[in-house]
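Please study the protein below:
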Amino acid sequence: MTIIKSIIRKYSTHPPKRQSSLSDIYKLYKNKTPITVITAHDYITGKIADKSSKIDAILVGDSLAMVAKGHPSTLELEFDDFYYSTKSVIRSINEKFLIVDLPFGSFESSINQCIDSAIKLMKLGKIGSIKLEGSYELTDRIKTLNNFGIPVTGHIGLQPQKFNLTGGFKAQGRNSIQALEIFKQALHLQEIGCKLIVLECIPEKLSHYITENLNIPTIGIGAGNKTSGQVLVMSDALGMLDNKLPKFVNPYLNIHNLSIDALNNFGNDVKNLNFPVSSTHTYPMNDEEFEKFQKLAQTCI
């Protein structure tokens, strides 16, 4: 009985945290509290993001094609490869709202293909929204996903899956005609049911105007600080790779160089016989038992 009372007291005082939902994201939005989003691509990065008290949502973005799989763009990523990466992230998530991309080639061919891909991901559990790059051409798909109860996050401005069409990874909406088109796309995505919109690499003035004229949250990346929130790729924010960072990234750490230094220290310790330390890193054996072992071992020689 004492044990049972102790367990009840423990969980009534410190109940386990539940995973955040879309409603939690909208509470932040309505309170004008900036929404923080970071990407994750495996169990380790998901665990780091989930443990951060200042991160509100995690995005399993198809950017993992480049930062975790070594591809030159997101186009080479196979759906099954992305699916298994998503599974590994999900195993690490307990608290954060989770958004997951549909990678290139998994939704364009037909509504059925889009629905099948989205449902396969949603059945993994813990996913709060599916993200799609595009606008008008996705109208039927976004409406259908909504009808099936799947919240959709839109993505306009620079769309990495369409970098060939735009001539590379370039800022969008820098003249009045392009800006108007992006604004119209944002209004359209809101009208057909998107719950969030990512605005990538557009002028701050434009992202501010869009944010002020929508009633759904906008998440910026390379779009200034006037959006409802911000997202960064974790490998960029933490300096995990030695690649050139985009203009809009603020590196908060340089894990790449720190890791190389740490491995060099490990290598030096091994070569100089400073690691492992016998008194610290090894398992003892009783002298009497070792003597018995030596006698037994002699029979094998």
In short: The CA atoms of residues 4 and 83 lie 41 Å apart. The first strand starts at residue 35 and ends at 39. The two ends are 60 Å apart (CA to CA). The chain has two domains: 15-253, 258-298.
